């Protein structure tokens, strides 16, 4: 149940209403970041979804936990046509992939890169200071990813942490949808 007022006519898209009506300039920027992450990420769909889903587990956003990459191209419910749909960027994860994320350290379903993106997301979500001085982890990241992909992963995780928490805290996660950026 939303923790801010959502009029009846906006009940099907409470997040879009909150972004556009309460804080339109901030909402447009937040929505723009969300759309940019899904449309322009350099990560493969499985790398992206491993990190996103681990973030959803940490945030507790029910809609984020229910979302699957196979639905990503329609995630904006017809309001945005992706230049680079997720299904064109590599294999999409199956349900076994999502089920394994909680036990990512021990599950054999993840590649080394996928495991790193999940570990990265978990550290950002739970212990952001754990990156300080962990040169072994940074060395592993640099062995598998370019600097551009590391920056992409960091901004993507930041987006999921922030927006998942906003959505969950405000009680909007029953009807979460990435809102379109609105003219401020």
List keywords for this structure.
disordered C terminus, 184 residues, 8 helices
Architecture overview:
- This protein is an all-alpha fold.
- The C terminus is likely disordered.
- The protein has 8 helices and no strands.
- It is globular.
- Helix 3 runs parallel beside helix 6, helix 3 packs parallel to helix 8 and helix 6 crosses helix 8.
The N- to C-terminal Cα distance equals 27 Å
Please tell me how large the radius of gyration is.
Answer: 16 Å
The unreliable regions are: 178-184
Order of helices and strands: HHHHHHHH
Anisotropy-based shape: globular
Which range does the strand content fall in?
Answer: under 5%
Helix content: 40-55%
Q: Helical segment tally? A: 8
Query: Based on helices, strands and strand pairing, what is the structural class?
Result: mainly alpha
Task: Please tell me the overall pLDDT.
Answer: 89
